[in-house]
Amino acid sequence: LKMEGYRSFLFFLVSSLLFGFLGVIFVLVWVLHWREGLAWNGGAAEFNWHPVLVITGFVFIEGIAIIVYRLPWTWKCSKLLMKYIHAGLHLVAIVLVIVALVAVFDFHNSFKIPNMYSLHSWVGLTVVILFSLQLVISVFVFLLPIASDSLRAALMPIHVYMGLLLYGSIIATCLMGITEKLIFAVKEPPYSKLPPEAIFVNTLGLLIVVFGGLVIWIATRPAWKRPPSYGVKLPHPNGGNPTDTEDNTTVTDHKPDLELNSDAARKRNLKLDEAGQRSTM
Ligand code: HEM
Prior knowledge:
Layout: H1 6-34, H2 44-47, H3 49-67, H4 79-110, H5 119-143, H6 149-185, H7 196-219, H8 257-261, H9 263-274
């Protein structure tokens, strides 16, 4: 299948991957080179798992989860398979983040540092709880074959909005955490003297913001959406929801390409976007 603006999609995809990889490398270099390394010993090296796992899981892997339907190479795969991949990546992300939270609570407890006093921890824990809720609800509504099409269609805009809101909040939480840690930990010379570690880690923060921005850009371009599967009844021109949707069909199982590639089909697909609707099957 052809994609509108394929070259610019590739540019954004490659740039985002570059920034994402760099972010993960920077956080590793930070804790391994500038800080105490990684260990599970109740000490500072255990705390260090917190930023490493959160940036790997909640920023990088979660960013890929958000844009995975946009990869045109996957459009020949069934929507159901792609849903499993999307959900599976979220699951990997949340597992890494839960380990990251255990690390920081364990570290706080062994040093008798109070828990949950900072804005960072409030926003962070809220995001983790809402993210888990979104994951469970979405598995029941969109993955398991139990919910009605109308429920799926009704929840899809909320799913998309919550996903992007939570992702933006994840980036904000990371920035707060990075700032806190730099203020706590960079001494002699202090953070305010801008030593090399501070410049390096400020740069890490910028990498995360740019990566997040690219992911959200890719996810919000209507023209880069996965075309609806063959068998999806598009809405009538006078409105109404898509009704019957056929799941396990791969686009190549049939001969839908004429229809899917036609300008008319593409325009109707964009119309669906304007209505804030997506194929939910
Ligand atoms: C503490 C969540 C990213 C640094 C915490 C706590 C939570 C949390 C819930 C409270 C732990 C406790 O009270 O015992 C998150 C989430 C993140 C994230 C959900 C990502 C979305 C980061 C990053 C850093 C960081 C990237 C960078 C180093 C800290 C620090 C603390 C902390 C220094 C201890 C001080 C405090 O409680 O605020 N985090 N965190 N966090 N986090 Fe994060």
